[in-house]
Amino acid sequence: MNVQTFLDEMGINYHSSRHPAAYTAQDLASIEHVPGRQVIKPVVVRVDGQLMMCALPASYRIDLDALKKQLAAADVSIVDESMLKKLFPGCELGAEPPIGRLFDMPTIMDESLVGDARVTFQAGTHSDAVTMSLVDYRRAAQPEMGYFGRHI
Length: 152
Prior knowledge:
Layout: H1 3-10, E1 15-18, H2 25-32, E2 40-47, E3 50-57, E4 60-62, H3 64-70, E5 76-78, H4 81-87, E6 107-110, E7 118-122, E8 128-133, H5 134-141, E9 144-146, E10 149-151
Parallel strand pairs: 3-6, 6-9
Antiparallel strand pairs: 1-8, 2-3, 2-5, 4-10, 7-8
């Protein structure tokens, strides 16, 4: 199921846009004319053998040690690209929407995203994006909250 269908079924209000190809979340921020802190990038990690999607601003990087400590995990590692291809069928590599529920995994959202009313993210391709309220994103993703992002 694509992200737009998922959001439609949940009755969530959002705006879709087409844009020139954006291969990073920072590129998407530039193309969509929004600050990097408002663009959500997903990072999939393996936490003690279980997959989890981390959602953080484009202008941040994940602090694996902080995430490991917060989750009281023995092992946390970023999933490699070959695994991402298997996890996100129908999505272009690097353009996965940051809603783990779409892919049967939990989402943890960095608290730094809470400061903005609206968020934007890739919608499965490098040329499609979705913008919505943070409230609606949280309703769609049902994320756990965390503090694991560090400003680049």
